[in-house]
Write a structure and sequence with these properties.
Layout: H1 2-17, E1 18-19, E2 22-23, H2 27-44, H3 50-70, H4 83-87, H5 93-121, H6 129-157, H7 162-183, H8 187-191, H9 198-201, H10 204-209, H11 218-237, H12 252-267, H13 274-283, H14 288-294, H15 299-306, H16 314-329, H17 331-336, H18 348-351, H19 357-387, H20 390-415, H21 436-457, H22 461-476
Antiparallel strand pairs: 1-2
Helix pairs in contact: 1-5, 2-3, 2-5, 3-5, 3-6, 3-7, 5-6, 6-11, 7-15, 13-19, 15-16, 16-19, 16-20, 16-21, 19-20, 20-21, 20-22
Length: 497
């Protein structure tokens, strides 16, 4: 039995970790978790006693693991596309399930270890080594519990309320950003906790921390034991939800933007760009893999609001200015998933057209600007007006939109590695791979500086609208780029055009 399970495990891990270009081990995401956890636990370890520290340390992989499971690791909790073929092999269903659970544990456990190992290293001196090793094991069990919870959630929402998953992903994103930013200021209160109550008792990390030696017992311990039992039952018998079904391309927002789409198609989009412009406009918002990765990033400005971004103080105004420029910070993540699609075979519609890769990129870039960025900046303008005043919104929102349009044009070749809607998400990697992480860090630093500079120096709405006009004129200029750094997949190259 176990020989067959291990063979299945190795085959599935090979499919997850290897691509045609070679190994794609998730080294960069693990290092990201090591960095975040090391900074947070390094600060908390000098302040907190063992039990409060265990709550804090387990909350870090809980938040980061939830983001991963809602995003790039979500397919782990869905039905395998090759299930029928594998089911024809001489293996039993229980062996298939064991292999699937082990794959989930290995991938999630590897990511969780990136956060748990620094937690063990920076634990307070009063936490002895048996308790530290226990913290490591409990953290891995918590990760399995998180996977079981999200598996149940996907079963309930599959093909009926998938928008709920995107909303929950967004809320988790806000909670992680605000929690990590504001949590350090609450260490003094957390240090006094001996018997958790209220909001603290609602945290799963509180339940699992109670399982460690020296835990408080009581309700927290009971909830921890119940969580372990429910996890075992769910992973043993719960069905894996089916792959996402096709989504309707119409929505209230698309109907509102339809006049703008027609105007752009006649005045801004060139005939050779029209096919990709229409394709991306209609199809990309219906791609669940794109939506689940891109839409939750809209929570970043909301997080700034919760952290105190408003016009009531100079510090609040500065945060509000950064919130207006925030889309430029996470623009690489948005662009990286423009090629993502669950049906890459449908790209033949574009492959057979006599257009170049540059035409495809230009059409897709314009669709992204109008379909995603423009509505976002209109919403941010309303937010700035509500939190500050109309002049503040008119001074900064047009300038922020102009800066994002120009940045999109500049970084597109580096982050859009394939033609739009042409590749499965598993082939795209993550923004933390290779040089992408360094580029995103530089963009984040540069955008923050530009936001503060714009807040200080742009004193008139007319200047902001002049900057936007310049950006639009640059966008009207044709793109002369002939190739992308990614593999060329056009069936008809420039000579055929």
């Amino acid at each position: 039995m176990w020989t067959r399970v291990i063979a299945l495990l190795r085959a599935q891990l090979a499919g997850e970790w290897y691509a045609e270009s070679g190994s794609r081990l998730p080294i960069a995401p693990i290092l990201f978790q090591v960095t975040i956890s090391g900074v947070l636990c390094g600060i908390a370890g000098d302040v907190l006693p063992p039990y409060p520290y265990a709550i804090f340390a387990l909350t870090v992989p809980l938040g980061l693991g939830a983001l991963a499971l809602f995003g790039e690791l979500a397919p782990l909790l869905r039905s395998d596309a090759a299930a029928e073929w594998v089911g024809a092999l001489p293996i039993r269903p229980i062996e298939l399930r064991l292999a699937r659970v082990l794959v989930t544990f290995v991938l999630l456990g590897g990511l969780a270890l990136g956060a748990l190992l620094p937690a063990v290293a920076f634990a307070p001196g009063a936490m002895l080594w048996p308790a530290r090793i226990g913290l490591l094991g409990i953290g891995l069990l918590q990760t399995l519990g998180l996977a079981a919870f999200l598996l149940l959630l996907q079963v309930l929402c599959a093909r009926r309320a998938e928008g709920v998953l995107v909303l929950l992903h967004t809320l988790v994103f806000v909670a992680v950003l605000v929690g990590f930013a504001a949590g350090l200021s609450k260490l003094g209160s957390l240090a006094e906790v001996t018997e958790p109550t209220g909001v603290l008792l609602a945290l799963p990390s509180t339940w699992y921390a109670a399982l460690l030696p020296g835990g408080p017992g009581g309700l927290a311990l009971t909830l921890g034991l119940v969580a372990l039992g429910v996890t075992a039952v769910v992973l043993a018998v719960a069905p894996f939800p089916p792959p996402p079904r096709a989504q309707r391309t119409g929505s209230p927002l698309s109907l509102l933007l339809e006049p703008l789409r027609r105007l752009a198609a006649r005045t801004w989009v060139r005939p050779r760009e029209r096919a990709t412009f229409e394709f991306v406009w209609d199809a990309l918002p219906a791609e669940r893999d794109f939506v689940s990765r891109a839409y939750p990033l809209l929570a970043v400005p909301v997080a700034f609001l919760l952290l105190g971004a408003d016009g009531g103080s100079e510090q609040g105004e500065g945060l509000l200015a950064i919130a207006l420029f925030a889309p430029a910070i996470y623009l690489p993540v948005l662009l990286m998933h423009v090629p993502a699609t669950g049906t890459p075979e449908a790209h033949w519609l574009i492959d057979l057209a006599p257009v170049t890769r540059a035409d495809q990129d230009a059409g897709a870039r314009k669709a992204i600007a109008l379909r995603f960025l423009l509505p976002l900046f209109l919403a941010l303008s309303v937010m700035a007006y509500a939190r500050a005043d109309l002049i503040f919104a008119l001074r900064l929102a047009p300038a922020a939109f102009a800066a994002t349009l120009l940045l999109q044009r500049v970084i597109w070749p580096g982050y859009v590695s394939r033609p739009p809607l042409s590749a499965p998400p598993s082939d795209l990697g993550t923004v933390w791979d290779d040089a992408g992480s360094g580029g995103m860090l530089m963009i984040a630093i540069g955008t923050s500086l530009v936001a503060i500079l714009a807040w200080r120096k742009i004193d008139s709405p007319w200047l902001a609208f002049a900057m936007l006009a310049v950006a639009l004129l640059i966008e009207l200029a044709p793109s002369h780029r002939k190739a992308n750094r990614g593999p060329k997949t056009d069936s008809m190259d420039e000579s055929a055009a």
